[in-house]
Amino acid sequence: MLRASDRAPGLAIADDVVLPHDVEIGANVVIHAGTAIGAGVRIQDGAILGKPAALGALSKASREELPPLVLGDGATVGAAAVLSAGAAIGPRVLVGDQVFVRERSAIGERSTVGRGTSIENDVVIGARARIQTNCYITAFSELEDDVFVAPCVMTSNDMSAGRRRRTEPLRGPVLRRACRVGVGAVLLPGVEIGEEAFVGAGSIVTRDVAARSVSYGAPARHVREVADAELLGT
Fold this sequence. Notes:
Distance between the termini: 52 Å
CATH topology of the domain at 1-52 and 66-128: UDP N-Acetylglucosamine Acyltransferase, domain 1
Order of helices and strands: EEEEEEEEEEEEEEEEEEEEEEEEEEEEEE
Radius of gyration: 19 Å
Shape: globular
Number of helices: 0
């Protein structure tokens, strides 16, 4: 049950939610039951935390009861963002305005998710990842530490476009450590982008991209290797 709170204008909060004294809360925020909020968290106007899952009649997603949403110390949740129950947001993560993070997804410490991006269910994102504006990260994707995803990147997990057998699992892309994906690229189900690889803008990735490969085109093809000077930390 939600109740009004005088902690912030228009705040609706469940009785079992504990707010540390140093949490900053904007106007018209909703915090659902069980949500765990760390110290120094910033929650901006209109955010919804711990939203219960809502599944369509034909959805094949799990209907098991979800654990609470967890927000790590120092995380920031942007205006009108929606974070579902069962998600885990690490310390000092920035979740931008109008971002949607679904159930059973995890975002590692100091990562950034840009405005309007959708993180679907069962996604794992490592530490220090940078996901830009209006990206779609499909269910069952894996993004390792230090990955960079440019604006409007689209990922997919079902080659049959909804006609797969019930026994056939969804397979999101795997983005290995410190790889980069350029603006507007499309990644097909199950492809792997290798460590320190670079996928060019507008590419359509239909097969795995090797570590340190610079690949682009439709379909994306290897062009050269990433130079030593371009590697992370060099």
